[in-house]
């Protein structure tokens, strides 16, 4: 199983940044790094990057590399933007090419659903677009937009390493499920979901994170507060 991860754009890409200067590539590359580490915990998986920290790789070079390697899956990771000033546009949207087999759409739906569930951001849907990386690839290709750099609250999330790891975990979980990947023995890959317990009466609790480092917990709390939630830290 060969997978190529594409951190969209590059350090030198003009215009792809938040109003206060965060470059999109800063987010994209870290999510790709986290995703690569997680995918390498699965058996018989080879992970490649279409991007480079040294230069802004042209789109044709990215898709040519994927096609030459004959990878089985292409995932392009992005952060969204609406205009160049702060505004209320928000949420996650995922893209496939209009002319793609059903299995590509199914992969996109799994990635999208996992991102929505994991991040709690607005669901903008799975959409179709004629993007180069979706059109010129010979394998299932999906492009995920993981929040808006032009939304102040989401820009703060996009800066958070906790949020970046959350996006990577959501993407990897979807890829692993779609391609039936098997975790290596004693690896740190995401375990399968436990069976659903029988219905019980009582109090039901929802937890969005568990951390050994309090700093990471406080970082997530701050990000959630900026989105209008009222989270709290509970120490067991």
From TrEMBL:
<dbReference type="GO" id="GO:0008745">
    <property type="term" value="F:N-acetylmuramoyl-L-alanine amidase activity"/>
</dbReference>
<dbReference type="InterPro" id="IPR002508">
    <property type="entry name" value="MurNAc-LAA_cat"/>
</dbReference>
<dbReference type="Pfam" id="PF01520">
    <property type="entry name" value="Amidase_3"/>
</dbReference>
<dbReference type="InterPro" id="IPR007730">
    <property type="entry name" value="SPOR-like_dom"/>
</dbReference>
<feature type="domain" description="SPOR">
    <location>
        <begin position="198"/>
        <end position="236"/>
    </location>
</feature>
<dbReference type="InterPro" id="IPR050695">
    <property type="entry name" value="N-acetylmuramoyl_amidase_3"/>
</dbReference>
<keyword id="KW-0378">Hydrolase</keyword>
<dbReference type="Pfam" id="PF05036">
    <property type="entry name" value="SPOR"/>
</dbReference>
<protein>
    <submittedName>
        <fullName>N-acetylmuramoyl-L-alanine amidase</fullName>
        <ecNumber>3.5.1.28</ecNumber>
    </submittedName>
</protein>
<dbReference type="InterPro" id="IPR036680">
    <property type="entry name" value="SPOR-like_sf"/>
</dbReference>
